[in-house]
Amino acid sequence: MSTNNVHVLSADQQVARIFEWRRGFNAMHLIDLGVRLGLFQALAETPDASADAIAERLGLHAPYVATWCITAYSLGLVESEKTGRLRLAPHIDTILANAGHPRYLGSYVRLGTEFATEDFRGCVAAFRTGDTVPYQGRSEDFTETVTGSTQGLHVVTARKILPELPGVKALMDAGGAILDVGCGTGNFLLQLAKAFPGGRCVGVDIDPVGIAVAKRRIAAADLGDRVAAIEGPIASVQPATFDIVVMVEVLHEIEPAVRPRVVSECAQALRPGGWLVIVDETYPSTLEQARQPEYQFPLQTGFEELLWGNVVPTREEQEQLLREAGFTGPVDRSLLGEGFTLLTTRLPDQHLQT
Q1: The domain that contains 24 carries what CATH number?
Q2: What is the CA radius of gyration of the chain?
Q3: Distance from CA of residue 222 to its chain's centroid?
Q4: Is the dihedral of CA 183, 189, 190, 192 positive or negative?
Q5: How much is the average pLDDT of 50-58?
């Protein structure tokens, strides 16, 4: 049965959907426990171990570990070819047991189970008042978890997206400069430094917590001669001194009223002909688009980050920001991963600096 070509679900089907979503809630907490307690790591290091052996190795309560293991098996996270012997399902080792891998999602899961859960508890009051708890100024633990959740995007952008843009690799090999806007704790800065060992990498961020971590990381990597993290707005850097400006999961975190100035400052930081690269998310422009697959992840971000004060921009809003800032040439747009938007464009060769 349908109305306006939309399939109408039965009551039983609606109930089943809610039970499935509830199961997903438990699955996220099971994964989070597995990461925090080292269960995924232990299974990665000792395949074909029993639940009792894992519990003994980690000093955990064996009946609880046994329940975790059979539940993880039911979810397809763990496999068993021999009775009582367990191993991780294919690819779960890199996704949940290797924090350095680009596909690692342990931090993203924790962002939901800990920090988003805490924010949701505050939403009942916030819905009545409109109050927000901005991203900036939260704990270092929060900032590091956000960084970990975007690590894969950082790696892909630094190692694949940027080097494949026309002229970028040659520019950076010749001593070019790249500006990371919203650099946070400096993870992406260090990825850029590895990808472009001949270039200069600078990050700016208004969050003092993230900048403090970034400076420590740069010092620890002994990269202070060509990598820097600056606390402040983009206007803190000299105009027309960068060949590439990058924003990874930053645009939607900027207040809508401030975005025109920020994107304009990106243009001012670039040399004529320079690249602007944005990896972000695109909100649906219409109610009909809200059920299209490419908008599912941005919609969840918009809801999860309500209390942060974040507003995910639509395609029209993104393109207006670029035009008004002076990016009047073609804008290449593509989907990345689970629902991220990649935008690349260049300043005109004769862009006027003001």
Answers
A1: 1.10.10.10
A2: 23
A3: 26
A4: positive
A5: 97
